[in-house]
Amino acid sequence: GCELTLNSVTKVYSPGTEAEVRALGNITLNVEPGEFLSVVGPSGCGKSTFLQIAAGLIGASGGQVALDGHKVNGPPEGLVYLFQQYTRSLMPWRTVLGNVEFAIEGHRMSRAERRDRCMNFLAMVGLQDFASRYPWQLSGGMQQRVAIARALAAEPRILLLDEPFSSVDALTRSDLHELVLRLWEERGFTAMLVTHDVDEAILLSDRIAVLSHRPSQIVETIPTELPRP
Ligand code: ADP
Ligand code: ADP
């Protein structure tokens, strides 16, 4: 996994206008290689903003973001972002399998190899029988499972998760928690999860960063010491 560093990061939306929102106050945080860090905080405090800046999806207003010491200026290679809204991840014109295959489209391997690998990830989320369907033929929770299969198939070095489990039912959620944890342990990628669910944060992560109301600051970071399932 790679190391993510945020140094005095601030974010103001629409600065100098009536619509100005000071989202991030001053965020300094170091996520270690292979660490699983969760970010919790009240609704609207800037958790998604924080994650999108870490991913290079939007720019910060001040401060620096670096991945393995390299300044982040756009989505870096090896970084995978899982959106809360699966509708932002899946391409409606591609089948379920086609969506997962997209994650490794550039990889050098045969068509059959790519297909097998992606079918394997679909099986991990219990959707092997839906490979030839289209996303809109699936329920919301199933679509999110496809998005999760795709994120994992990409073999990220760092995985950023923006509440990806909130749209699935409780039973599926606990299966997906186990799957993500298992792959995280096997593959050693760095993971950062944004959630409003403190129990989920405790279950999944090594450390929890608690944000204040906006303009948010990190109030404290708490190591979790509970044994994993
Ligand atoms: P959280 O994920 O903690 O709910 P967000 O990062 O989504 O918080 O939002 C933080 C604040 O910034 C909120 O007040 C939100 O309305 C505002 N905000 C988020 N995105 C934008 C945007 N693109 N333009 C203007 N304001 C935004
Ligand atoms: P969350 O609380 O999970 O961040 P939101 O509903 O706040 O979800 O935000 C969903 C999306 O809308 C995010 O991409 C965010 O950047 C964007 N957004 C949120 N608030 C605003 C806003 N005031 N203006 C424009 N975009 C916004």
Automatic annotation (TrEMBL):
Pfam families: ABC_tran (PF00005)
Keywords for this protein: ATP-binding, Nucleotide-binding, Transport
Boundaries of every ABC transporter domain copy: 4-229
GO molecular function: ATP binding
Domain of life, source organism: Bacteria
Family membership noted in the UniProt record: Belongs to the ABC transporter superfamily.
PANTHER family assigned: ALIPHATIC SULFONATES IMPORT ATP-BINDING PROTEIN SSUB, TAURINE IMPORT ATP-BINDING PROTEIN-RELATED
Protein name per its UniProtKB record: ABC transporter ATP-binding protein
Organism: Arenibacterium halophilum
